[in-house]
Prior knowledge:
The protein is α+β, with helices and mostly antiparallel strands. The protein has 3 helices and 12 strands.
Amino acid sequence: MFSKFFKVVLLFVLALSFNFSHADAAGTVMWGKTELKLGQIGKVTIETETELVKLESDGSLSIVRVLKIGEEFRVYSYKSNHGGLYGVGGGSFVRADGHVKYETPSKSKLALLQQMGENPAPVQPVKPSQPKPGVGSGLEIIPGAPTSYPNCTKMKEYYSYGVKEGHPAYASKHDRDKDGWACEKN
């Protein structure tokens, strides 16, 4: 009985920490082991040892070093030469082949990053039981809040005054009067 209770509590703590792990107190947006940065289009995770290369002026590639399994790198650009190259900054590239896994960030992480860029102060989560004092801009993002809701009742647990068009949680199905606000308080 005790071990079952312990497992439930542990699972709850893990789920709670997962919900708040993508934005820390310093105002960063974490994506796996990598901090998401403005201008980043994706990331690569090294799945088997592969080479970090530089693209020389004559179009050839030179090896900088060998990358280890599990390392992650931000991707800022893509070039189609040499079968595809992911630009990881500093003029260095990783080949787009079976040795790496390429991923793009979620819309909610990009929206949070954009908001933090516009407002460098750390974003503090608002608990559903404590509604915001006033309507606000309708574009505030609560870290850990879902980005889609089955109905307005569920959305108002997080955004008591609704959200404005452009917010990651905005859905036209929740904007009945088509005024650009979903689930607004009447």
